[in-house]
Amino acid sequence: MNYTNDKNAEGRMSDKYLLKKKEQKLSSLSNCIDKLKVEWLKNKSIAALWNDWPRIAGNKLASNCIPLNFQGGILTIGSNHPQWIQALIFNRNQLLAALRAEGHEIKDLRIQQYYPQKIEPKDNETFIWEKHPSRVDIYGKKKCPICNAPSPIGEISLWGKCGLCRRNDLTQ
Ligand SMILES: [Zn+2]
How far is the CA of 28 from the centre of ligand 1 (A)? Predict the structure, then answer.
């Protein structure tokens, strides 16, 4: 038995071991890249859809209906107006065919109501005006118990007097 030879054998063993480790590392890296690729392709497909959508749907439809989601081959298109939802339903098969012809792997097309704009606040000017006690046309008139002037009922039921009397009270 030669001590030096043994050591060489050991050295070769550890070289092999390191090489195997290196391969494992590389394969896990390529797994990672594969995952990234899938992720990237998923993002790319919705990005590509967004890109092609105005051309496929036409400007009018595209500016009122947008692709919201594309998952598992199912494309969801949202629109905020019943008229455009009707248009989407009416053109559904044509859109599917056009999207497929462009190379998008779409199994099904779903249409849903979508609210892209913020919901109108209730306390807008019209709403406040509708509730305003000075609106004679909806509240009618009544004599003010202080000055006897015909005044909006809303004002009298709210303040127990007309708006003028109330203003006098407030400025006194
Ligand atoms: Zn009054």
Answer: 86
- With b for 16 or more beta-carbon neighbours within 10 A and e for fewer, the 17-53 pattern comes to eeeeeeeeeeeeeeeeeeeeeeeeeeeebbeebeebb
Tens digit of pLDDT for each residue in 137-162? 556 788 899 999 988 888 888 889 99
Per-residue pLDDT reduced to its tens digit, 94-131: 999 998 988 888 999 999 988 655 444 455 555 555 56
Torsions phi, psi for 70 (to 5 deg): -140, 100
118 assigned to some structural domain: no
Q: Are residues 141 and 104 in the same domain?
A: no
**Position 31 pLDDT exceeds 90:** no
Compute, in angstroms, the gap from residue 163 CA to the centroid of ligand 1.
7
Give the distance (Å) from ligand 1 centre to CA of residue 154: 13
- Report the separation in Å between the CA atom of 144 and the middle of ligand 1, taken as the mean of its atom positions: 5
Note down the domain range covering 51. 3-113
Instruction: Please count the other Cβ atoms lying within 10 Å of the Cβ belonging to residue 68.
Output: 16
137: CA distance to ligand 1 center in Å? Answer: 19
Q: Give the mean model confidence (pLDDT) for residues 77-83.
A: 87
Question: Which CATH number characterizes residue 68's domain?
Answer: 3.30.300
User: How far is the centre of ligand 1, averaged over its atoms, from the C-alpha of 115 (Å)?
Assistant: 47
Q: What is the pLDDT of residue 59?
A: 84
Cα of 105 from ligand 1 centre, angstroms: 74
